[in-house]
Records
---
Amino acid sequence: MTVRSDPTSQGGRLVELGGLVIRYGAIAAVQGVDLAIDAGEAVAIVGPNGAGKTSLLSAIAGVARPSAGSIRIAGKPLAGIALSDVVREGVALVPEGRNIFGSLTVMENLRLGTTPRRDASVPADIDRVFADFPILGERRDQPAGQLSGGEQQMLAIARAMLSRPRLLMLDEPSLGLAPNIVDKVYDILRQIRGQGVSLLLVEQNAARAFALADRACVMSRGVFTLTGTPAEIERHEAFDAAYFGVAMAKAGTA
């Protein structure tokens, strides 16, 4: 049940997943997933809770170790290497819940994003963050836990970008945010994409993700059940069942 669509090439293949399997004991959260992302491309993954979306991002980021399959960025194998080395290869993850350090200041949180770097342009990049996110500049010495949810999301994105990623992954970036704040977050993501950074989004808010993405995948029970352009997927007769989950779809027709 796949909608076929050729990816838009914007500078060559950046990410390749081949037969990726992620297990937690006897449970296979991800079951043989293949995915390719080109440089500068935005890909959205949507689907019901428990589909394996977060596990997939965690494996690419080096947080979860795959049981089988391969992960490559620009042709270099990533599976099994240290988390810090994954970051140095250009992969950054903004996790669900943001994972900022509430007792640390905004500036201290940002500096954590520069930990893998060894170059002299870190201060200039932090100044650029404050130019792009003026509210963070105004609150640089304030504990991050005192920021609003939207400000914390901006901080998490800014912190990730300070590692200078080639691939920025975001897990539920609109979760718990007011619609006007979601607008701001997605405006920021469009700007990031305009810089040539590839994006991989996991979202419950399919409409938001589809408006940004070149391609999309619907994930259910550890596999991709639909792939294609957002327009192709939204038109597909199986989209509602795939997106909401088979059980929910059946319940709605009972």
---
Amino acid sequence: MHDMTLPAELSQLLRGYEWQRITLGLSQSQTYLLSGASSNLYIKIQSLTAAESLYWEKERLVWLQGRLPVPEVVYYGQDDANEFMLMTEIEGINASDKSYESMLPQLMQQLAIGLRAVHEVPVEGCPFDKTLNAKVVEARRRVEQQLVDEEDFDQQREGRTAENLVQELLDLKPESEDLVFTHGDYCLPNIILKDGRVHGFIDWGRAGIADRYQDIALAIRSIGYNFGNEHVQTFLDAYGLTALDEAKVHYYQLMDEFF
């Protein structure tokens, strides 16, 4: 059982659940699968001092209800040290699972179908601004507050400093944005499939209006990392991208180093 003191209302909701720590993913929060008699839940617990607040994800999940298959927020609250978010489960197996190695062309098709569905969410009235100006301001703030993990840079940027990279971010900024609703971290562990088809999406803390390459760039990197770069073209074809903008792929992968 988890030994942290929970807010009373949350404690009440979790009576009788079994806790299991989830270690997949590079999140700042502690995530647990809660197994219950009727259905499973997930809980995220995170320090109030973390660089990204769970409140951001809570707001996005509430906004996305009825727009995409995402978890429902059962409870959100804070105490003086942590914030807590309890969510329903999206049933299935995430897209990074090795069980998909026997059906990679189909997996690539599903990842593309999933991303098209995300990008087709109408942006009218969407309150979440992740356009370049907003992201660059946030990246600079993180560098100034020393929140960027220089040990975790992608291979081609190993040994560089965050200050050095932020200059590149300003120098290479694309002149135009093809704005759509984006997931913000469209990596394989965040896409859940059931019976071989996309069943839902998780980890929405960075979602908002941005260039579609925010998602395409991270999907390309994640496909390569999990299954090999030879599968990327299948994904791009299925998404319907006729010509890949390599500069934007580079830029949005660079941007991700700050987050």
---
Amino acid sequence: MNFLKNYSCLLLTLLPLLTTAQVIFEDNFDGEQLNMNSWSYEEGDGCPNLCGWGNNERQVYNRDYVKVEDGNLVITASKKGDQYFSGKINSKEKVEFKYGIIEVRAKLATGEGLWPAVWMLGADISEVGWPASGEIDILEYVGREPHTVFTSLHTPASHGETINTKKTFISDIETGYHIYKTEWTEKYIKFFVDNELVYTFIPEVYDENYYPYNKDFYLLINMAVGGNFGGPKVDDAVFPAKFYIDYIKVSKL
């Protein structure tokens, strides 16, 4: 009996350690400023190479619109005069990984013209460009389509208005925080919202044209304004608008 009791105690002691060991990256945004060991700012309007960031977006990204407050990453979109401003960060060359479960707890910014997103790009994008790099859109929301979450993949075989996408109607998605999760393996990618499976992607062919996902990727978090996907109309009454990210965590499968 003592042996069983001691063994049970040992398991209870080791279990949290084993669980923690599976996490390869986690940011709970508990400090007073962005952790620059994990993140970098993206700034400007994308010019001269990608004016409008390749999507005719209206905002200029500026680090002043990225804050860490009350245990959240807060990205604010605002308008000053005739110009829109917002924030964008990425983990390129700082946090890169291949495969895993990516989990994000976030509260959306809402209003026509807003486009908050959490997504990933292939770490080789500087060498091969887009869409050869591949793109995984963990969460996209556009205010012009209320109560709807977009989960998408962009590949050389299908990108831009990709066929590898799912629109999911969730009536209360604008209310409070929700958990967005992506399970990424060498054979498939699955998307979940509040632990409900919403989309499974299995490619037609396992090659770089149809599945450019067998390599390292990095994370991006931003909120665009307008653009090809955000829509031509922007409701200026929604500004300033805030996109809250409570945490982001990457775990091994």
---
Amino acid sequence: MGDALLKAELFEQLARVGKALGSGKRLELLDLLSQGPRSVADLAATAGLGLTTASMHLKTLREAGLVATTRKGTTIRYRLAGEDVAALFAQLRAVAAAHLADVDVARTRYLRTQDGEDTEQIGRDELLRRAQAGEAVVLDVRPVPEFAAGHIPGAVSIPLDELPDRLSELPADVEIVAYCRGAYCVLAHDAVRLLTAHGRRAVRLAEGMLEWRLANQPVTATAS
């Protein structure tokens, strides 16, 4: 029989990770960091947080060993501590979706239009088939820094907020497959709605960059 106090200490150490994950905003920060390294200011702005609040959340994640930092000059950039953290985040989502009905309700309310209409999607294998056959243009609608950190090879980068003014850059006679951060990212949904409203043939990748990386698919990076 082992020492009960030592056993309790062991499980308390494991619980540090669970406690760090016990915040929706910290999960959102992990979601953003799964796309690539970011500064505190960038993370705060994208997640709708004040700098002090974002720093506190990042400190908690760092103390739990989930994120790490790199300093370049006066700028500190945060990154996931390892690919296993991205896998943990994805598995947490999967378990929550499998066992909590409220997750699907919340996801549907967030990703679909008010009338409940969803956008057409295709899987990873079908995207590759259509792209390789020249039947589709792959469109990355994430912000430019995320595209630079890693994207599907051959993808065209047009952030969602620039898409209305840059439609002419996309061929009118080829289907467009849009993708963004992951299965819970709304950007690709909104891109497909915008494109179809302008008469373009468009679908979205069912998942996103997080799942693409975890599936060990090829990734191109243009960041320095």
